[in-house]
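Supplementary Note 3. Input sequence used for the single-chain structure prediction.
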Amino acid sequence: MNRIIDISGVGMVREGKQILKDINLSVNTGDFIAITGPNGGGKTTLLRIILRLLKPTDGNVRYFTDGTEVKRLSIGYLPQKNSIDSHFPITVRQVISSGLLGVSGIDKNMCETLTESTLQDVRLLEKADSPIGALSGGQLQRTLLGRALIAPHDVLVFDEPLSYLDRDFENRMYELIAARAPYTTIILVSHEMTRFAQMANRHLIIDRTLTECHSSSHRIYCDCCDK
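The predicted structure, written as discrete structure tokens, is reproduced below.
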């Protein structure tokens, strides 16, 4: 397999506290990487460094396409809901369609078609023109999911995708992610690993440092730690 992301010697210090230390990881094209670990262990920080939204104190992140280093990749990102300003005056439709910004070959008609299809996928057609400030936590999470999934991407990054979702849509989310897994590299952080562990081919624990887990069970953190 060709690597698509290379993380080398990454460390992060914030306000004198070591958040991440000596993180090394090669992500291969087609990997589904499930990440777990304790609260405050650095999982979200690592995702933001991978996305180049945050510069590490040490080390670097490199992107590759077909074995050649490139400056950027097409990445869809579902952040944690609490990182979004719900008072910003934007509608559900506008948030989801913003996932097409920078995607080549998408004209206005195609944008509208993809937006309507994605609204249906995340079950928000009836909320399409509602401002995000009027949404419940679960509806906002589905909106952000739609933005991440509307376009084909080299990589999809999910940070706690199950947050605020009811059981019915949780099952729908598994379906939407699984449908993209065969042809998209996926990096996903979640405290709930039972279903994602079955979908993933690699399992990581982040607790300042990185451990790749080869346990057959990932239901709880200690299953991985004890292996």
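The longest strand covers residues 3-14. The chain is about 30% helix and 30% strand.
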